[in-house]
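Posting this for the archive.
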Amino acid sequence: MNAMTIAGLAKAGGVGVETVRFYQRRGLMAEPKRSGGVGLGGGIRRYDADDVRRLRFIKSAQIAGFSLNEIAELLALDAGEDRARARALASERLAALDAKIAELQTARTALQRMASACSATSTGPCPIIAAFQG
């Protein structure tokens, strides 16, 4: 995986080229120097396995629900090996996920109740539609 173009990096990381560029603008990924020449056609930027690992880290952290700012902090913590702060960020994320799960379970229960009420009768307004109309 050495000497990949940005397209190869994006493919290896499971994202689009514009996503890689966005991460570079946000400072989450480095933008390597061009391989030679000057100006617009001054060579190609090359990426390696470390860039793929970083890109995959960012993507995995996003899937876990971390914001880009939190991911930037995690990346900085990795360089400084501040495990206590990394644990605190993970704990905060877990608490947010637990709250979201509870919210989704409440919504599921309510929707299940409305679906049961809807199937209990075939006359009158649908309880599901009535509930969403206020």
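Residues 86-121 form one domain. The longest helix spans residues 83-120.
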